[in-house]
Amino acid sequence: MNDNIFLLKTPELKKENQLLSLIENQTKFSLNNCEFSIYETHQAAFGVKLHFETIAFTAMLRGKKHMKLENKTPYFDYFPGESVLVSPGETMVIDFPEADETPSQCISLSLNPEFIENSLNHLNYHLPKVDETSQWNIQLDEYFLFNNKSLASATNNIMRIAMDDNSQKDIMADFALKELLIRLMQTQARSMVEKNIAKNKSRIGFAVDYIKKNLHQKLSIDSIAKLAYVSKSNFFKMFRDELGTSPNEFILQERINRAKELLANQNSIKETAYQTGFSDANYFTRVFKQLVGVTPKSYQDKVLFLE
Question: Does the N-terminal or the C-terminal CB of the chain have fewer CB atoms within 10 Å?
Answer without folding.
Answer: C
